[in-house]
């Protein structure tokens, strides 16, 4: 099958190609080794390498400068959690040992992230020569950062994770390029994404991103059971991949073919239970912390709730936010079901997934800067147009910069109390997401788009 080249398909790529000789012609020859996928992998590697360079200012001083980490936008959660959650002592994240729990807070992330962080801590210790841990056990936790061996390990821990994240980004690119075999270049918006460059090292979210990319790939190959497995593993890393099951349900209902949905749900449930089992068995109370932490969380960074509190000068109760956010999300999902069932053409799994996850993010109690990665693999396949990607990711970058300057108190109002520029940045981000969602939904009702995409949405029961 002939590969669709971006200069033959995308107006922005066509215009930019004039600077390097124009669009690809009908008689252009290919290269035996430099296939589109290999070029995409190189582009991903370059993007991620630039992302590591962007964090070099913080890496040089081991994230000790409290202002520079925000002004240079190079903040990362990784170094602080290395000492703050016991990884410097190789403590099992779900240990119920009284001494461990007296020294360290429980890891507030899902089990997949906790496993990865604990595993990379072991690798870090091994690279550092496996130093003795007894002196660390005897020192107060707030003094660990200043210990020379630990201080060196903090940098190593970030590097070990960065290498692992780079491998995950490469794998995600390969999977996304394979979803539509005639359109591998759609994955270029992921490979060269500014969001990947700036947000890839903030937290462990790329673990979930690669699971979503894998779920899209297996679905395109007609393997709903494996799609469910990857959704279940992803949900054990971050909750949002679970929402892809809603997209699968819409496609099953639309086609009246239910066996694929059954296999996906079964695979997801089994995978989620198996991944969570070691943590639950070793420390059920510690395993529950993620759920209790999120249910008791108040309005936080980037959320529409924080914006409304800032604008109206009030504070919403946690129960109020929990109730209304879930009611809104339920209504959003009901609307997605109606639109998906009445669409002129069958939506794709990526399109439905994008719309559902975006609805969740719009009313979630927090929008951390790296959450843009949640939408990225879905967006590049749901709307493979450079103009739309640049508008949406540009809006996300406005928020990415604003949130760090907000934390550094650079955006405080002279009158005090409110933060108008930060509020505006949050609204820009929300409008960017709504813009992308609107384009995707409108495309379901236009005939012109029906033949443009090699859709994977009809593969529901194979």
TrEMBL record:
Assigned keywords, A-Z: Cell membrane, Membrane, Transferase, Transmembrane, Transmembrane helix
Membrane-crossing segments per the record: 33-53, 109-127, 154-177, 189-217, 229-253, 260-281, 321-339, 421-445
A single Gene Ontology CC term: plasma membrane
Mode of membrane association: Multi-pass membrane protein
Pfam families: GT87 (PF09594)
Compartment annotation: Cell membrane
Superkingdom to which the source organism belongs: Bacteria
GO MF, one annotated term: hexosyltransferase activity
Family: Belongs to the glycosyltransferase 87 family.
Record's protein name: Uncharacterized membrane protein
Organism expressing this protein natively: Nocardioides terrae
